[in-house]
Amino acid sequence: MTAAKQRxxxxxxxxxxxxxxxxxxxxxxxxxxxxxxxxxLYREQAPRIFSLACRMAGSTEDGEDLLQEIFLQAHRKxxxxxxxxxxxxxxxxxxLNHCLDYVRSRQVKMRKVTDTLDAAGSFEPLARHDTxxxxxxxxxxxxxxxxxxxxxxxxxxxxxxxxxxVGRMLGIAEGTSKSQVFKARLKLRGLLGKS
Amino acid sequence: MHPNEDTLNAYADATLDxxxxxxxxxxxxxxxxxxxxxxxxxxxxxxxxTLEFRDPPVRAWARIERAIELETANDGPAKAGHHRxxxxxxxxVLVTAVGLTIGRSQFRSTMTERPTASAGGPATAAPDxxxxxxxxxxxxxxxxxxxxxxxxxxxxxxxxxKDDQGALDGRTAATLQxxxxxxxxxxxxxxxxxxxxxxxxxxxxxxxxxxxxxxxxLEDTVALINEMRKGNEAGAARIVSDLKTKGD
Lengths: 195, 248
Fold this sequence. Notes:
The complex is a heterodimer.
Chain A: H1 2-6, H2 14-18, H3 35-57, H4 60-77, H5 87-110, H6 116-120, H7 135-143, H8 149-158, H9 163-170, H10 174-191
Helix pairs in contact in A: 3-4, 3-5, 3-8, 4-5, 8-9, 8-10, 9-10
Chain B: H1 5-12, H2 18-30, H3 32-49, H4 59-75, H5 84-113, H6 125-163, H7 170-196, H8 201-230, H9 233-247
Helix pairs in contact in B: 1-3, 2-3, 4-5, 5-6, 5-8, 6-8, 7-8, 8-9
Protein backbone atom coordinates (compact mmCIF):
# COMPACT_ATOMS: atom_id res chain seq x y z
CA MET A 1 0.00 0.00 0.00
CA THR A 2 2.88 2.33 0.81
CA ALA A 3 4.41 1.65 -2.58
CA ALA A 4 1.18 2.64 -4.28
CA LYS A 5 1.03 5.94 -2.41
CA GLN A 6 4.64 6.77 -3.23
CA ARG A 7 4.27 6.04 -6.89
CA UNK A 8 3.96 9.15 -9.07
CA UNK A 9 0.71 9.70 -10.96
CA UNK A 10 0.31 7.35 -13.89
CA UNK A 11 0.43 9.10 -17.23
CA UNK A 12 -1.85 8.08 -20.04
CA UNK A 13 -0.34 7.50 -23.41
CA UNK A 14 -2.16 8.50 -26.55
CA UNK A 15 -2.36 4.85 -27.65
CA UNK A 16 -4.03 3.77 -24.45
CA UNK A 17 -6.62 6.51 -24.76
CA UNK A 18 -7.29 5.68 -28.38
CA UNK A 19 -7.96 2.05 -27.55
CA UNK A 20 -10.36 2.61 -24.70
CA UNK A 21 -13.91 1.33 -25.11
CA UNK A 22 -16.84 3.64 -25.43
CA UNK A 23 -17.21 5.74 -22.32
CA UNK A 24 -20.79 6.83 -22.13
CA UNK A 25 -20.42 8.38 -18.70
CA UNK A 26 -17.55 10.68 -19.57
CA UNK A 27 -17.45 13.65 -17.25
CA UNK A 28 -20.59 12.71 -15.30
CA UNK A 29 -20.54 11.98 -11.56
CA UNK A 30 -21.57 8.43 -10.76
CA UNK A 31 -24.59 7.70 -8.58
CA UNK A 32 -23.27 5.75 -5.59
CA UNK A 33 -25.43 2.75 -4.72
CA UNK A 34 -26.91 2.45 -8.20
CA UNK A 35 -26.03 -1.19 -8.79
CA UNK A 36 -27.64 -1.27 -12.23
CA UNK A 37 -25.54 1.66 -13.37
CA UNK A 38 -22.51 -0.03 -11.87
CA UNK A 39 -23.34 -3.20 -13.78
CA UNK A 40 -23.56 -1.15 -16.98
CA LEU A 41 -20.15 0.29 -16.21
CA TYR A 42 -18.88 -3.25 -15.62
CA ARG A 43 -20.28 -4.50 -18.95
CA GLU A 44 -18.62 -1.60 -20.78
CA GLN A 45 -15.24 -1.72 -19.09
CA ALA A 46 -14.71 -5.29 -17.85
CA PRO A 47 -13.13 -6.68 -21.06
CA ARG A 48 -10.52 -3.95 -21.05
CA ILE A 49 -9.77 -4.32 -17.33
CA PHE A 50 -9.84 -8.13 -17.48
CA SER A 51 -7.38 -8.12 -20.40
CA LEU A 52 -5.00 -5.83 -18.55
CA ALA A 53 -5.27 -7.91 -15.35
CA CYS A 54 -4.72 -11.28 -17.06
CA ARG A 55 -1.76 -10.03 -19.03
CA MET A 56 -0.09 -8.28 -16.11
CA ALA A 57 -0.68 -11.24 -13.78
CA GLY A 58 0.32 -13.81 -16.40
CA SER A 59 -2.69 -16.05 -15.78
CA THR A 60 -6.42 -16.01 -16.43
CA GLU A 61 -7.16 -17.28 -12.93
CA ASP A 62 -5.27 -14.47 -11.22
CA GLY A 63 -6.71 -12.04 -13.77
CA GLU A 64 -10.22 -12.99 -12.69
CA ASP A 65 -9.36 -12.47 -9.02
CA LEU A 66 -7.84 -9.09 -9.86
CA LEU A 67 -10.92 -8.13 -11.89
CA GLN A 68 -13.13 -8.80 -8.87
CA GLU A 69 -10.85 -6.88 -6.51
CA ILE A 70 -10.64 -3.93 -8.92
CA PHE A 71 -14.40 -3.60 -9.34
CA LEU A 72 -14.97 -3.99 -5.59
CA GLN A 73 -12.42 -1.28 -4.96
CA ALA A 74 -14.03 0.88 -7.65
CA HIS A 75 -17.42 0.45 -5.97
CA ARG A 76 -15.94 1.51 -2.63
CA LYS A 77 -14.28 4.57 -4.15
CA UNK A 78 -17.11 5.72 -6.41
CA UNK A 79 -18.05 8.39 -3.89
CA UNK A 80 -14.70 10.04 -4.52
CA UNK A 81 -15.19 10.18 -8.28
CA UNK A 82 -16.08 13.77 -9.10
CA UNK A 83 -16.42 13.48 -12.83
CA UNK A 84 -13.25 15.43 -13.55
CA UNK A 85 -12.23 12.76 -16.03
CA UNK A 86 -14.09 10.09 -17.94
CA UNK A 87 -15.10 7.30 -15.59
CA UNK A 88 -13.39 4.78 -17.88
CA UNK A 89 -10.13 6.69 -17.47
CA UNK A 90 -10.60 6.80 -13.70
CA UNK A 91 -11.34 3.08 -13.61
CA UNK A 92 -8.40 2.21 -15.85
CA UNK A 93 -6.05 4.20 -13.61
CA UNK A 94 -7.39 2.40 -10.55
CA UNK A 95 -7.03 -0.97 -12.30
CA LEU A 96 -3.49 -0.26 -13.42
CA ASN A 97 -2.47 0.81 -9.91
CA HIS A 98 -4.04 -2.35 -8.51
CA CYS A 99 -2.20 -4.53 -11.04
CA LEU A 100 1.10 -2.78 -10.28
CA ASP A 101 0.57 -3.31 -6.54
CA TYR A 102 -0.13 -6.97 -7.25
CA VAL A 103 3.01 -7.32 -9.37
CA ARG A 104 5.15 -5.65 -6.70
CA SER A 105 3.75 -7.68 -3.82
CA ARG A 106 4.25 -10.86 -5.80
CA GLN A 107 7.84 -9.91 -6.54
CA VAL A 108 8.47 -9.41 -2.83
CA LYS A 109 6.73 -12.64 -1.84
CA MET A 110 8.19 -14.88 -4.45
CA ARG A 111 11.61 -13.27 -4.84
CA LYS A 112 11.40 -14.57 -8.32
CA VAL A 113 14.27 -13.83 -10.70
CA THR A 114 13.36 -12.55 -14.11
CA ASP A 115 15.67 -14.84 -15.98
CA THR A 116 13.94 -18.13 -15.24
CA LEU A 117 13.15 -18.65 -18.90
CA ASP A 118 16.81 -18.32 -19.85
CA ALA A 119 17.65 -21.17 -17.50
CA ALA A 120 14.72 -23.26 -18.63
CA GLY A 121 16.20 -23.89 -22.07
CA SER A 122 14.12 -24.51 -25.16
CA PHE A 123 10.34 -24.33 -25.41
CA GLU A 124 7.91 -26.03 -27.65
CA PRO A 125 6.69 -23.43 -30.12
CA LEU A 126 2.99 -22.59 -29.87
CA ALA A 127 2.65 -21.93 -33.60
CA ARG A 128 4.48 -22.91 -36.74
CA HIS A 129 6.94 -20.63 -38.43
CA ASP A 130 5.45 -18.09 -40.85
CA THR A 131 1.88 -18.51 -39.59
CA UNK A 132 0.21 -15.24 -38.60
CA UNK A 133 0.25 -14.46 -34.89
CA UNK A 134 -3.25 -14.88 -33.51
CA UNK A 135 -4.59 -13.25 -30.36
CA UNK A 136 -4.90 -16.65 -28.73
CA UNK A 137 -1.30 -17.55 -29.57
CA UNK A 138 0.01 -14.29 -28.22
CA UNK A 139 -2.08 -14.41 -25.04
CA UNK A 140 -0.97 -17.97 -24.37
CA UNK A 141 2.66 -17.12 -25.01
CA UNK A 142 2.42 -14.09 -22.71
CA UNK A 143 1.51 -16.38 -19.83
CA UNK A 144 4.81 -18.17 -20.34
CA UNK A 145 6.99 -15.09 -20.17
CA UNK A 146 8.96 -14.60 -16.97
CA UNK A 147 7.77 -12.00 -14.48
CA UNK A 148 9.54 -8.73 -15.11
CA UNK A 149 9.86 -8.81 -18.85
CA UNK A 150 6.16 -9.72 -19.25
CA UNK A 151 4.95 -6.65 -17.35
CA UNK A 152 7.32 -4.37 -19.28
CA UNK A 153 6.11 -5.86 -22.57
CA UNK A 154 2.44 -5.52 -21.60
CA UNK A 155 2.85 -1.90 -20.54
CA UNK A 156 4.99 -0.90 -23.54
CA UNK A 157 3.83 -2.97 -26.47
CA UNK A 158 0.18 -3.57 -25.55
CA UNK A 159 -0.81 -0.64 -23.35
CA UNK A 160 1.35 1.84 -25.25
CA UNK A 161 3.43 3.50 -22.54
CA UNK A 162 6.91 4.71 -23.40
CA UNK A 163 9.98 3.26 -21.68
CA UNK A 164 10.30 6.21 -19.32
CA UNK A 165 6.73 5.69 -18.11
CA VAL A 166 7.17 1.93 -17.86
CA GLY A 167 10.34 2.42 -15.82
CA ARG A 168 8.53 4.75 -13.44
CA MET A 169 5.61 2.36 -13.00
CA LEU A 170 7.73 -0.73 -12.43
CA GLY A 171 10.42 1.02 -10.42
CA ILE A 172 13.18 0.22 -12.93
CA ALA A 173 15.50 2.31 -15.09
CA GLU A 174 14.42 3.34 -18.58
CA GLY A 175 17.26 1.27 -20.04
CA THR A 176 16.12 -1.76 -18.05
CA SER A 177 12.64 -1.35 -19.48
CA LYS A 178 14.12 -1.37 -22.99
CA SER A 179 16.11 -4.52 -22.36
CA GLN A 180 13.17 -6.27 -20.67
CA VAL A 181 10.90 -5.48 -23.61
CA PHE A 182 13.51 -6.73 -26.05
CA LYS A 183 13.97 -9.87 -23.99
CA ALA A 184 10.20 -10.43 -23.97
CA ARG A 185 10.02 -10.01 -27.76
CA LEU A 186 12.82 -12.51 -28.26
CA LYS A 187 11.13 -15.01 -25.93
CA LEU A 188 7.85 -14.53 -27.74
CA ARG A 189 9.61 -15.04 -31.05
CA GLY A 190 10.76 -18.43 -29.79
CA LEU A 191 7.42 -19.33 -28.22
CA LEU A 192 5.52 -18.38 -31.34
CA GLY A 193 7.76 -20.48 -33.53
CA LYS A 194 9.28 -17.49 -35.26
CA SER A 195 12.90 -18.44 -34.73
CA MET B 1 29.25 -6.11 -37.72
CA HIS B 2 25.64 -6.59 -36.57
CA PRO B 3 23.74 -3.72 -34.95
CA ASN B 4 23.29 -4.22 -31.21
CA GLU B 5 19.96 -5.27 -29.66
CA ASP B 6 19.01 -1.73 -28.60
CA THR B 7 19.42 -0.52 -32.16
CA LEU B 8 17.44 -3.39 -33.68
CA ASN B 9 14.71 -2.95 -31.10
CA ALA B 10 14.55 0.79 -31.75
CA TYR B 11 14.48 0.10 -35.48
CA ALA B 12 11.54 -2.28 -35.02
CA ASP B 13 9.83 0.47 -32.99
CA ALA B 14 10.66 3.05 -35.70
CA THR B 15 12.29 5.31 -33.12
CA LEU B 16 15.74 5.67 -34.73
CA ASP B 17 16.80 8.95 -36.24
CA UNK B 18 17.10 9.02 -40.06
CA UNK B 19 20.88 8.57 -40.07
CA UNK B 20 20.82 5.53 -37.80
CA UNK B 21 17.87 4.08 -39.65
CA UNK B 22 19.70 4.33 -42.99
CA UNK B 23 22.71 2.59 -41.48
CA UNK B 24 20.57 -0.28 -40.15
CA UNK B 25 18.81 -0.61 -43.47
CA UNK B 26 22.14 -0.93 -45.28
CA UNK B 27 23.04 -3.75 -42.92
CA UNK B 28 19.66 -5.44 -43.29
CA UNK B 29 20.09 -5.44 -47.05
CA UNK B 30 23.11 -7.70 -46.64
CA UNK B 31 22.24 -9.71 -43.50
CA UNK B 32 19.38 -12.23 -43.75
CA UNK B 33 19.56 -13.14 -40.05
CA UNK B 34 19.08 -9.57 -38.83
CA UNK B 35 16.41 -8.98 -41.50
CA UNK B 36 14.48 -12.02 -40.29
CA UNK B 37 14.81 -10.92 -36.66
CA UNK B 38 13.55 -7.42 -37.42
CA UNK B 39 10.61 -8.78 -39.43
CA UNK B 40 9.64 -11.04 -36.52
CA UNK B 41 10.03 -8.27 -33.97
CA UNK B 42 7.80 -6.04 -36.06
CA UNK B 43 5.20 -8.80 -36.43
CA UNK B 44 5.13 -9.23 -32.63
CA UNK B 45 4.95 -5.48 -31.99
CA UNK B 46 2.12 -5.18 -34.51
CA UNK B 47 0.21 -8.13 -33.06
CA UNK B 48 0.62 -6.75 -29.52
CA UNK B 49 -0.56 -3.27 -30.45
CA THR B 50 -3.72 -4.64 -32.03
CA LEU B 51 -4.45 -7.29 -29.42
CA GLU B 52 -8.17 -7.47 -28.70
CA PHE B 53 -9.78 -7.30 -25.30
CA ARG B 54 -10.75 -10.54 -23.57
CA ASP B 55 -14.23 -11.15 -22.20
CA PRO B 56 -14.28 -12.20 -18.55
CA PRO B 57 -16.14 -15.39 -17.60
CA VAL B 58 -19.88 -14.93 -17.15
CA ARG B 59 -19.72 -15.75 -13.44
CA ALA B 60 -17.40 -12.79 -12.78
CA TRP B 61 -20.18 -10.20 -12.50
CA ALA B 62 -22.27 -12.46 -10.25
CA ARG B 63 -19.30 -12.82 -7.90
CA ILE B 64 -18.73 -9.06 -7.83
CA GLU B 65 -22.40 -8.30 -7.29
CA ARG B 66 -22.65 -10.71 -4.38
CA ALA B 67 -19.48 -9.37 -2.79
CA ILE B 68 -20.86 -5.81 -3.09
CA GLU B 69 -24.07 -6.94 -1.42
CA LEU B 70 -22.09 -8.44 1.42
CA GLU B 71 -20.08 -5.27 1.89
CA THR B 72 -23.22 -3.16 1.78
CA ALA B 73 -24.80 -5.45 4.37
CA ASN B 74 -21.83 -5.04 6.69
CA ASP B 75 -21.82 -1.26 6.34
CA GLY B 76 -25.47 -0.71 7.15
CA PRO B 77 -28.88 -2.25 7.68
CA ALA B 78 -30.03 -4.85 5.19
CA LYS B 79 -32.23 -3.50 2.46
CA ALA B 80 -35.81 -4.67 2.26
CA GLY B 81 -36.53 -7.32 -0.29
CA HIS B 82 -33.25 -9.16 -0.02
CA HIS B 83 -33.73 -12.88 0.17
CA ARG B 84 -31.91 -15.25 2.50
CA UNK B 85 -30.26 -17.05 -0.36
CA UNK B 86 -28.64 -13.88 -1.58
CA UNK B 87 -27.01 -13.27 1.80
CA UNK B 88 -25.87 -16.84 1.99
CA UNK B 89 -24.43 -16.59 -1.48
CA UNK B 90 -22.59 -13.40 -0.60
CA UNK B 91 -21.17 -15.01 2.52
CA UNK B 92 -20.12 -18.04 0.54
CA VAL B 93 -18.27 -15.85 -1.94
CA LEU B 94 -16.30 -14.32 0.89
CA VAL B 95 -15.47 -17.73 2.31
CA THR B 96 -14.45 -18.87 -1.16
CA ALA B 97 -12.26 -15.85 -1.73
CA VAL B 98 -10.54 -16.27 1.63
CA GLY B 99 -10.02 -19.98 1.04
CA LEU B 100 -8.60 -19.42 -2.43
CA THR B 101 -6.27 -16.67 -1.28
CA ILE B 102 -4.92 -18.61 1.65
CA GLY B 103 -4.57 -21.81 -0.32
CA ARG B 104 -2.86 -20.10 -3.22
CA SER B 105 -0.44 -17.95 -1.24
CA GLN B 106 0.55 -20.73 1.14
CA PHE B 107 1.09 -23.10 -1.68
CA ARG B 108 3.15 -20.67 -3.70
CA SER B 109 5.33 -19.55 -0.82
CA THR B 110 6.07 -23.14 0.12
CA MET B 111 6.91 -24.08 -3.45
CA THR B 112 9.23 -21.12 -3.99
CA GLU B 113 11.01 -21.28 -0.65
CA ARG B 114 11.67 -24.98 -0.63
CA PRO B 115 15.43 -25.71 -0.83
CA THR B 116 16.76 -27.81 -3.68
CA ALA B 117 17.79 -31.37 -2.89
CA SER B 118 21.46 -30.89 -3.72
CA ALA B 119 21.90 -27.49 -2.07
CA GLY B 120 24.71 -27.29 0.45
CA GLY B 121 26.69 -30.35 -0.63
CA PRO B 122 27.86 -33.28 1.56
CA ALA B 123 29.36 -31.11 4.32
CA THR B 124 25.92 -29.76 5.22
CA ALA B 125 23.99 -32.94 4.52
CA ALA B 126 22.74 -33.39 8.09
CA PRO B 127 21.40 -29.85 8.55
CA ASP B 128 19.86 -30.07 5.06
CA UNK B 129 18.14 -33.31 5.94
CA UNK B 130 16.78 -31.77 9.14
CA UNK B 131 15.66 -28.67 7.26
CA UNK B 132 14.11 -30.80 4.57
CA UNK B 133 12.19 -32.86 7.17
CA UNK B 134 10.99 -29.74 8.93
CA UNK B 135 10.02 -28.24 5.59
CA UNK B 136 8.06 -31.35 4.67
CA UNK B 137 6.15 -31.04 7.97
CA UNK B 138 5.42 -27.39 7.25
CA UNK B 139 4.32 -28.26 3.73
CA UNK B 140 2.01 -31.00 4.98
CA UNK B 141 0.55 -28.73 7.63
CA UNK B 142 -0.03 -25.95 5.09
CA UNK B 143 -1.56 -28.39 2.68
CA UNK B 144 -4.01 -29.54 5.34
CA UNK B 145 -4.85 -25.93 6.17
CA UNK B 146 -5.49 -25.18 2.51
CA UNK B 147 -7.64 -28.29 2.29
CA UNK B 148 -9.69 -27.18 5.28
CA UNK B 149 -10.31 -23.77 3.77
CA UNK B 150 -11.41 -25.28 0.47
CA UNK B 151 -13.64 -27.78 2.24
CA UNK B 152 -15.24 -25.01 4.28
CA UNK B 153 -15.91 -22.90 1.21
CA UNK B 154 -17.26 -25.91 -0.68
CA UNK B 155 -19.53 -26.87 2.20
CA UNK B 156 -21.05 -23.38 2.33
CA UNK B 157 -21.72 -23.30 -1.39
CA UNK B 158 -23.05 -26.87 -1.40
CA UNK B 159 -25.57 -25.92 1.28
CA UNK B 160 -26.79 -22.94 -0.75
CA UNK B 161 -26.97 -24.98 -3.94
CA LYS B 162 -28.86 -27.75 -2.11
CA ASP B 163 -31.33 -25.43 -0.37
CA ASP B 164 -32.16 -23.45 -3.49
CA GLN B 165 -31.85 -26.08 -6.15
CA GLY B 166 -35.61 -25.88 -6.70
CA ALA B 167 -34.94 -22.72 -8.69
CA LEU B 168 -33.26 -24.81 -11.40
CA ASP B 169 -35.01 -26.95 -13.95
CA GLY B 170 -34.65 -30.71 -13.45
CA ARG B 171 -32.35 -31.30 -16.38
CA THR B 172 -29.89 -28.58 -15.42
CA ALA B 173 -29.89 -29.72 -11.78
CA ALA B 174 -29.23 -33.33 -12.85
CA THR B 175 -26.36 -32.28 -15.11
CA LEU B 176 -24.80 -30.23 -12.34
CA GLN B 177 -25.12 -33.12 -9.91
CA UNK B 178 -23.50 -35.47 -12.39
CA UNK B 179 -20.59 -33.09 -12.93
CA UNK B 180 -20.16 -32.61 -9.20
CA UNK B 181 -20.04 -36.39 -8.73
CA UNK B 182 -17.23 -36.63 -11.30
CA UNK B 183 -15.27 -33.89 -9.54
CA UNK B 184 -15.87 -35.52 -6.14
CA UNK B 185 -14.40 -38.74 -7.45
CA UNK B 186 -11.34 -36.85 -8.74
CA UNK B 187 -10.95 -35.11 -5.37
CA UNK B 188 -11.15 -38.48 -3.60
CA UNK B 189 -8.45 -39.93 -5.83
CA UNK B 190 -6.08 -36.98 -5.53
CA UNK B 191 -6.66 -36.81 -1.77
CA UNK B 192 -5.69 -40.48 -1.48
CA UNK B 193 -2.56 -39.76 -3.53
CA UNK B 194 -1.62 -36.89 -1.20
CA UNK B 195 -2.18 -39.07 1.86
CA UNK B 196 0.09 -41.81 0.51
CA UNK B 197 2.72 -39.35 -0.78
CA UNK B 198 2.44 -36.13 1.26
CA UNK B 199 5.52 -34.55 -0.38
CA UNK B 200 4.42 -35.19 -3.94
CA UNK B 201 3.96 -31.83 -5.70
CA UNK B 202 1.92 -33.26 -8.60
CA UNK B 203 -0.47 -34.92 -6.12
CA UNK B 204 -0.82 -31.69 -4.12
CA UNK B 205 -1.37 -29.62 -7.23
CA UNK B 206 -3.90 -32.10 -8.53
CA UNK B 207 -5.88 -31.91 -5.28
CA UNK B 208 -5.84 -28.10 -5.26
CA UNK B 209 -6.88 -27.98 -8.92
CA UNK B 210 -9.78 -30.35 -8.25
CA UNK B 211 -10.90 -28.23 -5.29
CA UNK B 212 -10.78 -25.16 -7.53
CA UNK B 213 -12.79 -26.92 -10.22
CA UNK B 214 -15.47 -27.85 -7.71
CA UNK B 215 -15.56 -24.35 -6.25
CA UNK B 216 -15.87 -22.89 -9.71
CA UNK B 217 -18.77 -25.19 -10.60
CA LEU B 218 -20.55 -24.45 -7.32
CA GLU B 219 -20.04 -20.73 -7.85
CA ASP B 220 -21.56 -21.06 -11.30
CA THR B 221 -24.45 -23.02 -9.80
CA VAL B 222 -25.14 -20.34 -7.19
CA ALA B 223 -24.81 -17.62 -9.84
CA LEU B 224 -27.30 -19.50 -12.00
CA ILE B 225 -29.75 -19.85 -9.11
CA ASN B 226 -29.29 -16.14 -8.45
CA GLU B 227 -30.13 -15.22 -12.05
CA MET B 228 -33.13 -17.57 -12.11
CA ARG B 229 -34.49 -16.05 -8.90
CA LYS B 230 -34.07 -12.58 -10.33
CA GLY B 231 -35.88 -13.69 -13.45
CA ASN B 232 -32.89 -12.68 -15.56
CA GLU B 233 -33.19 -15.14 -18.42
CA ALA B 234 -30.35 -13.61 -20.41
CA GLY B 235 -27.97 -13.85 -17.44
CA ALA B 236 -29.02 -17.45 -16.76
CA ALA B 237 -28.58 -18.36 -20.43
CA ARG B 238 -25.06 -16.92 -20.40
CA ILE B 239 -24.12 -19.04 -17.39
CA VAL B 240 -25.67 -22.21 -18.83
CA SER B 241 -23.83 -21.58 -22.09
CA ASP B 242 -20.58 -21.16 -20.18
CA LEU B 243 -21.24 -24.36 -18.24
CA LYS B 244 -21.86 -26.23 -21.50
CA THR B 245 -18.64 -24.89 -22.97
CA LYS B 246 -16.72 -26.11 -19.92
CA GLY B 247 -18.41 -29.49 -20.11
CA ASP B 248 -17.45 -30.00 -23.77
